[in-house]
Specification:
This protein has 4 helices and 11 strands. The strands form 2 sheets. Strands 1, 2, 3, 4, 5, 6, 7, 9 and 10 form a 9-stranded mixed beta sheet that branches. The chain is elongated.
């Protein structure tokens, strides 16, 4: 008789382990993904504000990134601000692509020297600092080992002054361009 009274307890424990634990992990998928993403971004030198949050789809093939503001300790790009929710396409547990409708980049207010191939022409036109800053900022983003990223509208500021607005920008992983921050 003791054996038959233990069966419901054993079944309940098995049910909790087999169904409850995976269900709890699935329900906490957003918090888990956010924690992992924060660690990955910090490894790339980015620190994001407390609004940073990922919400994973039920099939775990896509995530929505809430608007947030991330800062960098070094380099020309000081702030990357996501102004609207972005969509992250996932392949397994890795981001395969990012689609952001609108971002703001804030560049540090420092002199930027263009590469030897184009600095002379930009300087002659009085555009060297603006263009070199824009190109160097985008180059830094490309060199951060981010997945391919498409941005609908990118607003670029230097300190608080508008530098440029770009429409439909595509960043792909790769080497930095020939521009140096001075």
């Amino acid at each position: 008789m003791a054996s038959s009274s233990k069966k419901p307890v054993v079944l309940a424990v098995l049910l909790v382990v087999l169904v409850g634990a995976p269900l709890a992990v699935w329900l906490a998928r957003g918090a888990i993904a956010t924690s992992i993403a924060v660690g990955e971004l910090e490894a790339r030198g980015l620190t994001c504000d407390d609004r940073f949050a990922l919400e994973l789809s039920a099939l775990l093939d896509e995530a929505t990134l809430a608007p947030t503001r991330c800062t960098r300790a070094d380099g020309l790009v000081e702030v990357i601000e996501l102004l609207e929710p972005a969509t992250v396409t996932l392949e397994g547990f890795e981001p395969a692509a990012v689609d952001a409708p609108s971002i703001r980049l804030v560049l540090r207010d420092r002199d930027v020297r263009g590469g030897d191939r184009w600095a002379r022409e930009l300087s002659r036109l009085g555009l060297e600092q603006r263009m070199a800053g824009l190109i160097k900022g985008l180059s830094e983003l490309s060199a951060m080992r981010l997945p391919p990223t498409t941005v609908g509208r990118a607003e670029v500021l230097r300190a608080r002054d508008p530098v440029a607005t770009a429409e439909t920008v595509r960043l792909t992983p790769g080497d930095a361009l020939d521009a140096a921050a001075g």
